Amino acid sequence: MNIPSKYEPGKAESTWYSYWMKHGFFKSTPDDREPYTIVIPPPNVTGVLHMGHMLNNTIQDVLTRRARMQGKNACWVPGTDHASIATEAKVVAKLKEQGIEKKNLTRDEFLEHAWEWTHKHGGIILEQLKRLGASCDWDRTLFTMDDKRYDSVIKVFVDLHNKGLIYRGVRMVNWDPQARTAVSDEEVNYTEEKSKLYYVKYRIAGEDGFVTVATTRPETILGDTAVCANPDDKRYSHLKGKKVIVPMVDREVPFIFDSYVDKEFGTGCLKITPAHDINDYEIGIRHKLPSIDVFNEDGTMSEKAGMFIGVDRFQARELSEKELRKSGSLVKVENYNNKVGRSERTNAVIEPRLSMQWFLKMEKISKPALDAVMNGDVHLHPSKFRNLYRHWMENVHDWCISRQLWWGHRIPAWYFSNGEYVVAETEQEALELARKKSGNKSLSAKDLVQDEDVLDTWFSSWLWPITCFDGINDPENNDYKYYYPTNDLITAPEILFFWVARMIIAGYEYRGEKPFSNVYLTGLVRDQQRRKMSKSLGNSPEPIDLIEKYGADGVRVGMLLCSPAGNDLLYDDSLPEQGRNFANKIWNAFRLVKGWHVDDSIPQPESSEVAVKWMNEVLKKSVHEIDNNFKKFRISEALMSSYKLFWDEFSGWYLEIIKPEYQKPIDRKTFQATVDIFEKLAELMHSFMPFITEEIWQMLKERKDGESIMVTRLPESKRYNKELLASFENIKETVTAVRSVRKEKDIPNRETIELLIMADSSEYDNSLMKVVSKLCNLSSVEFVEKRREGAASFMIGTTQYFIPLEGKLDVEAELSKLRQDLEYDRGFLANVMKKLENERFVQNAPANVIDLERKKKSDAEARIKSLGERISHLEKLL
RNA sequence: GAGACGUUAGCUCAGUUGGUUUAGAGCGCUUGCUUGACAGGCAAGAGGUCACUGGUUCGAUUCCAGUACGUCUCACCA
User: Fold this and answer.
1) CA A826 → C1' B49, Å?
2) How far apart (Å, rounded) are the C-alpha atoms in residues A761 and A780?
3) Could you tell me which CATH class the domain A181-352 is placed in?
4) What does the pLDDT read at residue A753?
5) Residue A132, phi-psi category: left (phi > 0), alpha (psi -120 to 50), beta (remainder)
6) Which protein residue's Cα is closest to nucleotide B59 at C1'?
7) What positions of strand B are covered by protein, i.e. any atom < 7 Å from a CB?
8) Max Cα separation, chain A?
9) Domain A543-700 falls in which CATH fold?
10) Calpha distance A82→A491 (Å, rounded)
11) Measured distance CA(A26)–CA(A404) in Å, rounded
């Protein structure tokens, strides 16, 4: 057989993925096995795969495949969300390119375009996940706006409204002028930005004097309805009851006092614009001030501004500066850094704006969700997020759930007269309610007007673990009862509040039970300068290109190796490269084993027999370690255990021991054992590297159509022989030491050497010594009582080893090495003695600790003694 | 401004209830090898007053307090 020396992943990937699909290995239906369920964090339906998705979905696939191989009924539910702001923005932009303005379309016409866009671009990201090897049950693919999910969201809205948890009201909201919608507090990011502080004079009405006010937003002067100082501020107390004149518009407004104002800041004098600042809004309420909204919804100046009408707010700022300067009202302008809120979606500067919105009361319904995390029903990994979670949940604000968009779940509220409204699942029900509420039996559907707004996208995804199994519409269905609560949720920490907390809230509200037991929060994928990877920065590689370059298995390993839970991953091409190299290592080990000829007539060498025994113990030990790591969600460490197991133990030691000489055959027993071990290793690594392990597993033994590594059972954790493992570590040290001697003395490998051990042969396992003989090409191993002259020597533990050199010994070099060792041992002994000579240590420390120190002492003394003897012998030779 | 978390090798991180032969891994680095599975490899090696200062203790990388620096979250500073 001619197997290429480099693993070529491309073909195996497409072959095996379609094989798995064809045989329905990803499918799950309820049965009597234990379920293992993950719901995917739904990506944006029209989005494409980025590095964060790669990391996140690799972890989900690893967990799913592993659970499946543990005999559980594994179900990973895929789906996408409608991402209302982002998708609507894209559709609007696309229409604009075609010369169509959204405002010239009816709602239905617009939605037709939006669906068309969704169908055209939708699902690309799911196809990309397949390239990664994702073992989702694709028959269950969902969308937050498909019929069942849509109806569920509407039902929940109506239900929460009927429970009195949803209300409508005028509030100061975060307005995104670019998307022309309100967004929730969680969707605003504050960043420190350079701006300017303008000092502006306000004349005092009927007097000559003036006050100076500092503001960062001179364009909002047009909406000022008061000027305010702290009541304790003596500088302004004479202005009590007076009025000041707002520059530019010459409006007379009252001078008021409120303790909110900081005397120390700026001039201690604050202009009040209740329509455009959350604090001013509150002061406005306290002092019953009128509010003047000077902006349109797109961020241009409104009619009410009285100036700069139709001009963008930032341009209006510049015009205001000019105008103020012209009229002599501008005292000075300073550079100033302040926090500016920007929209998560559009990056537009958020405009605080008064508007009528729908809110969900959070305080009461969030309580069980807080408890669930605090009492450990829901585990956050890493647990440091618990504090953060508690802090947020204890200070939770009402959630603004309405968005001024068309793409999404339309709010099921109907208005019928003077702002009166009813909330119902259908227009028909709404009509009946409206008739009842108004007492007007002749109301008809024509008299009802449905709310124009849609719900926040998160208001649909917070139900995701429930709606994935249609649990709102049909709470008694089998899927829901079987799969809910799900097991693990894998997501990014940035959406802990956006999404995770709210899912837990919904879980308790609608099922009385948590939605999942574990939340694994991945890190963020960053570049080498620690910048978050993003399209706009252009610092992110194209995931599919990476898969083509390094193979899906290589990329998966690369993403996992460097991503302990909650730690950011500093991406570098060397990561998938390491993954690819590992795949290649596995491939070449396979090539070696596959290339052997088996001869039934030759007996199994002793070294091979013991190697097989040892390898099986190592395997058991690794299985144990890997299990432990998975239990703690230390996935990168579980992978590292497998990596070292395969690379160091299996390839570096085991295969080297059992490897027959070039072109010589191998015995049947060893060969069979090796194939079995290889099979187990492949199974152990399958969840990390599904493709190469399947490729190899299929060729390792005769397989029938329909068999697959992905439906085999994982080796289970068992007790392992610690003594054998320890003696073998000794053997490894011996081999390493002999290799060093060969290297130092320049003795080529094919030249045999003798090894003398100054010890009693009964203390040594003869078959293990055969391993040393084979790996070091020894002609003999001899146990001696006395030191051998003219030999290289080394020490393992307290035992001395010699390799006769026949005059090749470099006495000077040997001496200097020995003296170095002696120095180390003396230092070590001094350390130990410091403890042992401390009476209080001997009195207080537990017996086993003291015994250990005594053992250290006697070992060190023994080593020092033999080193000293050898040194003095060698010195005589000089 | 308040709080949370962190600071261990050049980089990214482990270090499991304080004692495990004077601290571990992967990558990177250095040196030597085309040794017939693998140069995407093999072998050997260098590299750390465990941020700093105190405290508790027979004993601290590990526990406590403070300092410095960093990351994140929340918050109304014009």
Assistant:
1) 20
2) 13
3) alpha beta
4) 92
5) alpha
6) A841
7) 3-6, 11-14, 19-22, 25-28, 35-45, 57-59, 72-78
8) 122
9) Isoleucyl-tRNA Synthetase; Domain 1 (1.10.730)
10) 18
11) 40
Question: Using CA atoms, how far apart are residues A433 and A443, in angstroms rounded to an integer?
Answer: 10
Can you list the positions of beta strands (E) in A596-715?
Answer: 598-599, 666-667
Question: CA-to-CA distance for A501 and A391, rounded, in angstroms?
Answer: 12
Q: How far is the CA of A832 from the C1' of B54 (A)?
A: 26
Q: Which position has the token pair 């100082």?
A: A229
pLDDT digits (tens, 9 = 90+) for A825-839: 888 898 888 888 888
Q: Which nucleotide is nearest to A582 (CA to C1')?
A: B40
**Strand nucleotide closest to residue A830 (CA to C1'):** B22
Tell me the CA–C1' distance in angstroms for A184 and B11.
39
Residue that has been written with the tokens 């107390």 in this structure:
A237
For A542 and B75, how far is CA from C1' in angstroms? Answer: 38
Contact between residue A324 and residue A247 where contact means Cβ atoms under 8 Å apart? yes
For chain A, list residues with pLDDT below 70: 1
Residue from A141, A545, A185 nearest A352 by CA:
A185
> pLDDT per residue over A47-85, tens digit each?
999 999 999 999 999 999 999 999 999 999 999 999 999
Please report, for chain A, the start and end positions of each structural domain, with discontinuous segments joined by +. Answer: 181-352, 543-700, 724-877
Please tell me the distance from the alpha carbon of residue A601 to that of residue A775, in angstroms, as a whole number: 24
Nucleotide nearest to A846 (CA to C1'): B19
- CA gap A721, A621 in Å, rounded: 9
Complex ipTM: 0.96
Taking the C-alpha atoms of residue A675 and residue A669, their distance in angstroms, rounded to an integer, is 10
Give distance CA A740 / C1' B45 (Å).
11
Pairing of strands A210-215, A516-521: unpaired
> Which amino acid does the sequence have at A250?
D
Closest nucleotide to the alpha carbon of A551, via C1': B40
User: CA of A659 vs C1' of B38, distance in Å?
Assistant: 14
